[in-house]
Amino acid sequence: HEYVRLISRHRMTTGIKSQIEAFLEGFHELVSPDLISLFNEKELELLISGLPEIDLADLEANTDYNNFKPSDPQIVWFWNVMKTLTHEEKALFLQFVTGTSKVPIEGFSNLQGMRGVQKFNIHKAFGQNGGLPQAHTCFNQLDLPEYTSEEQTREKLLMALREGNEGFAFG
What we know:
This protein is of the alpha/beta class. It has helices at residues 2-12, 17-30, 33-36, 41-49, 56-61, 73-84, 87-98, 150-166, and strands spanning 63-66, 112-113, 116-117, 120-125, 134-136, 141-145. Helix 6 crosses helix 8 (150-166) and helix 7 (87-98) packs across helix 8 (150-166). The chain is globular and about 55 Å long.
């Protein structure tokens, strides 16, 4: 265990220290370290990459459901809410559920997860009817409570996106 940790550390830090320092030197010529420190890693990714163009029809076509059916009211409400989100809110959603704001070049049929290509999936969150949706970025998974209205779905999803982007987790 210790050996693997030390080898990993060497290959990812000390073994490439001179390359990292050269990259940072050039990067800091363009952007002051003081300015970069204002952003977290998600904000910096959006700043560098820009807002992605998210094709909701493609995302919906490449979504699996666990204990939900596409015709269930909660799923219909979810997609209705998604269609009303701003460009920025859609990017936050993508970051929230996948860990990145980047859309796969080949579309959502090629979305990568911990096990390789892994579709976006929505799981029913049992026992959390009033809680916030939760995400598992390694699995491109959204745990969605059984909300009682589209408005509640909108309110809870937007709260999760805003708070989740700040690093808070509410149950």
